[in-house]
Amino acid sequence: VRRGLVEWLPTRTILEAGRVDAPAGPKYRNLERATGQDILDVNRRGKYLLLPLSGGDTLVIHLGMSGVIRQTTSEKHIRACLRLSGPPPNKLYFQDTRRFGRFLVAIDSDFSSIPTLNRLGPEPLSADFSASGLLRGLQSRASIKALLLNQRPVAGLGNIYVDEALWEVSIHPALPGKQVTLNQAKKLKSAIVDILSAAIASGGTTLKDYRTLSGGEGEFQRALRVYGRTGLPCPRCGTRIIRSLIAQRGTHSCPKCQPLPRG
Ligand SMILES: [Zn+2]
User: Is the pTM of this model over 0.85?
Assistant: First the structure.
């Protein structure tokens, strides 16, 4: 999504910014302040899109479960809209069926009111991400799945990519983080980098709502090994993939490749 937006938005001026079908509240905080500011760039940290504005504020966008950024619309569930300077397309619509997304302005680019963003772990595709750092971030009794989803050992992983990465390295998703060995952390780090790189190159994973900026679907859903494949054979050993509830999320794993160590 960022790669699409960065070709389009800098250095247009936001002529008007506002909520559409969305109540006032923290998810759309200060949006009207964007009016009159230029979009300088389109950056990303973890799953947050960060658009620095000429007045010193930052437009913060999180797609949540079902957020889609559109250039045209005849759709329902449009939560926010920007009217932009320059030739068409010069409207940006934020559509969000399930309402987990955010589209707000952080005044003076102060992110302290967005705790997840403020405490995000290293970028997975940067030199800041290391196996030893990952191992340190996993020193908890919580399950490795919960820890990876909370964005602090490393930023940017959602439910799909956590399941795929843990299958790749044969780690049970309920394994307490502090039981992960350095060797496992090294493999996991590599798997995370490989999976995210491949997914980005494929334009993302479209299971239901997600669309690219041009309205197309991503293609990584064809490369998934366990996510959404309940009952189908494990690509490595042929055992049927199971779905369980771990960290309150539907979790897909191979009961043979990813055993839970005793104790
Ligand atoms: Zn297997």
Answer: yes
